[in-house]
Each structure stands twice: as C-alpha cells, then as structure tokens.
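Justification of resources, computational component.

The compute hours requested in this renewal are based largely on the per-chain cost of generating structure records like the one below. Each record pairs the submitted sequence with a full structure-token output. That output is archived, and it is also reused by downstream analysis tasks.
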Amino acid sequence: MKAQGFEHIVLIGDHGGNQEGLKAVAERLSRTWNGKPAIVYIPEYYSSWEGADTLLLKEGVSKKGMEDGIHDDPASTFHMMLIDPHSVRYDERVASGKATINGVSIADRAKDLQWGREIVEYRAAVTVEAINKALAGAK
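The structure output for this chain reads:
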C-alpha cells in the first residue's frame, strides 16, 4: 500500500486474538516510515462490541446469565443476520425450536434486524470517529 501511494493505512480487527498484533504492526511501521504514509490501528472497532451490548441492554436484552456454552452472543448474531441470516442458521434454529442464544430469543426476525442495524450504525459511528481522530493526530 505504501508503494502504491496510499497516504493513510487503517488497521481494524474484529477478533480478540488479532488486536495486539495489529497494534504492534501500526506502531512499528509508523516508526519505520516516519509517519508517511500514516498507519494507524483502531481498537475502537473491536471494543465497540461493549457499546453494542449496552444498546441491547436498553432493550432488555443481555448476554449475561445463562450461557449456552458456545462462542456466540445475541449482538454478534443480530449483526450477522443483516448480511446473511444463513450464517447463523436462522431458519434451521427456528424450525428446530433452538432460536435462542444464552436465553435470548432470535425468533423475531424483524426485531433482530432492527437491533442489527442499530448495532452496525453504532459501531460504524464509533469507528469513523476514531479513524478521524487518529488520522488528525498522525499529521
């Protein structure tokens, strides 16, 4: 990207295991390249899941409590349903009576999609604000 003339490189990750590596790469390349191009790591995208959970708490939805023992939570599922309901096996879960995650129903598709949109909009706003702030500081 540097060789192609990019002025800004933004590193964003959505998996917990990748955050430290992205941060280290951004810091090392920033030093090596003397800030040209500006390369920034944006942890706010990953950490914005906490805010998504807060949005759902306002609606009475909590991922705390009864754990199903799988790597899943309502906020992630509502987010994923916007792109592809098949990715969460929505139809199969509803048909088999297993349309819950940690005790939270996902059976109301319209409500799920509304919450998914709110989560995506919130995470996008937090991320854009963080990118703008990071790039302003990198100049």
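The longest strand covers residues 8-11. Residues 8-44+127-138 form one domain.
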